[in-house]
Specification:
The protein is α+β, with helices and mostly antiparallel strands and about 450 residues long. The chain folds into four domains: about 45-60 and about 65-145, Beta Barrel (Thrombin, subunit H); about 155-265, Trypsin-like serine proteases (Thrombin, subunit H, Beta Barrel), CATH 2.40.10.10; about 275-360, Pdz3 Domain (Roll), CATH 2.30.42.10; about 385-455, Roll (Pdz3 Domain), CATH 2.30.42.10. It has ten helices and 28 strands. It has a seven-stranded antiparallel β-sheet with strand order 7-6-3-4-5-9-8, with helices on one face. Strands 11-12-13-16-15-14 form a six-stranded antiparallel beta barrel. The longest helix is centred in the middle third of the chain and has 14 residues, at about 250-265. The termini are far apart. The model is unreliable at about 1-20, about 75-80 and about 365-380 (pLDDT under 50).
Length: about 450
């Protein structure tokens, strides 16, 4: 009550000094004030509460405040102690996207380890739900309930969402059913929010208040169309909302849910490439006018990429006609395709566009080496011992410090460097000449039968 006292005093002063109609007018110039209420009333029946029960293995005491799996995923620190079975109850949100079939979209982490799922509708009905499928990499799950008297939400097009668009989040934070918050789209294409290397992230960022319990709820535009599934927040140390929330774009969620409904799972294939961001320095080396695309650093033998004729050093710029601005975008697009799908790509090779077609293949036994992008506070080849390659052209790596920029870029002992910044080298003198004054080196490397391109900052 003490926090509310200044507000009550202010309202009392306003009431005494101004007519009531001027404090909260019902209309201005005979026009009603704008309100989100009609839209919210229309779509609220499509938003549900998802309550789960199950058992998980715990280490040490369980924090009772961490009932939402969102908090368990993002904010709980490492725990010690002997593992033991721990029963849990958890709460999240969901969105009805197919009323006729009884399908509900939510987060995969909301129903993780759940042995019993209860969906509560806006009208108070409780329905038992079954998991049709869940996909951890995208954090999408589909539930099914008895399709009686359900209302579904209209699906929007997240590709048309722009920064600054007004949005509304609806869910069940802290068990408060059908709570509505509003804000704007604060950013697009956010990734690296989680530490899950296998995750597919292309989040919509919003300042609409999202809290524990909102997981799996709806992010809608002012037309009431679903544009995202609320899934993550950045939080203060105390666990409160600080105005940074994230939602899975509905276009990504729709692709995943279609596969979950049809197949029960997402059987992802691979293109078979390892890629690196086209930074400004890399773009300069390749003579590009803008720093966009995904630089192919390695092509796996026998992969779809090799069969399609993609080479290390190519820069992938489009997939199925859509621009690719970064390796994360390429990974997201390819990750939503199934084994056997055909894909059309545009690559830049020697500055010229080349169109190739590939068929997504099952993951091979050999996976590409991940290209880790190092910080820029090192000279490119600091900490690397190099020698002229005996009996052949090039420079061989004879030692490399684990924390060096070159090591973080993927360079290894016994790699044979045969080119620097798109020019061939035959010895150390050539390498030193090509490297002089360069902040970034794009190394052409031979490793066994593989040919790699490794940008080193």
């Amino acid at each position: 009550m003490r926090r509310m006292f200044p507000l009550l005093v202010a309202l009392a002063v306003l009431s005494a000094t101004a007519p009531a109609a001027t404090i909260l007018p019902a209309a201005v110039d005979n026009k009603p004030l704008p309100s989100l209420s009609p839209m919210v009333k229309r779509i609220s029946p499509a938003i549900v509460n998802v309550a789960t029960r199950g058992t998980i293995k715990e280490h040490g005491p369980q924090n009772p405040l961490l009932d939402d799996p969102l908090f368990r995923r993002f904010f709980e620190g490492p725990r010690g102690g002997t593992p033991h079975e721990h029963p849990f109850r958890s709460a999240g949100s969901g969105v009805i996207f197919d009323a006729k079939s009884g399908y509900i979209l939510t987060n995969a982490h909301v129903v993780e380890n759940a042995s019993e799922i209860t969906v509560t509708l806006a009208d108070g009905r409780d329905l038992k739900a079954d998991v049709i499928g869940r996909d951890e990499p995208s954090d999408v799950a589909v539930l099914k309930v008895k399709p009686t008297g359900l209302t579904q939400i209209a699906l929007g097009d997240s590709s048309k969402v722009e920064v600054g668009d007004f949005v509304v989040a609806i869910g069940n934070p802290f068990g408060l059913h059908n709570t509505v918050t509003s804000g704007i789209v604060s950013g697009l294409g956010r990734s690296n929010i989680e530490s899950n290397a296998d995750g597919y992230e292309d989040f919509i960022q919003t300042d609409a208040s999202i809290n524990p319990g909102n997981s799996g709820g709806a992010l809608v535009n002012l037309k009431g169309e679903l544009i995202g599934i609320n899934t993550a927040i950045l939080s203060s140390r105390e666990g409160g909302n600080i105005g940074i929330g994230f939602a899975i774009p509905v276009n990504m969620a729709r692709t995943v849910m279609d596969q979950l409904v049809k197949y029960g799972s997402v059987r992802r294939g691979l293109l078979g490439v390892s890629t690196h961001s086209v930074t400004a320095d890399v773009a300069q080396v390749y003579g590009l006018s803008n720093a966009q695309g995904a630089l192919v650093t390695q092509v796996v033998e026998g992969s779809a990429a090799e069969r399609a004729g993609i080479h290390s050093g190519d820069i992938i710029t489009t997939v199925n006609g859509a621009a690719v601005k970064s390796p994360a975008e390429l990974r997201n697009v390819i990750g939503l395709l199934r084994v056997g799908d055909h894909v059309e790509l545009t690559v830049l090779r020697d500055g010229k566009p080349l169109h190739v077609a590939a068929m997504i293949a099952a993951p091979p036994n050999t996976e590409p080496t991940a290209a880790v992008e190092p910080p820029a506070n090192h000279t490119p080849l600091e900490g690397v011992k190099l020698e002229n390659a005996p009996g052949m052209a090039g420079v061989v790596v004879r030692g490399i410090e684990p924390d060096s920029a070159a090591a973080r870029s993927g360079l290894r002992d016994n790699d044979l460097i045969v080119g620097v910044n798109r020019a061939p080298i035959t010895n150390l003198h050539d390498l030193q000449t090509r490297s002089q004054g360069a902040a970034t080196l794009v190394l052409e490397v031979r490793r066994g039968t593989s040919h790699l391109v490794l940008p080193v900052h």
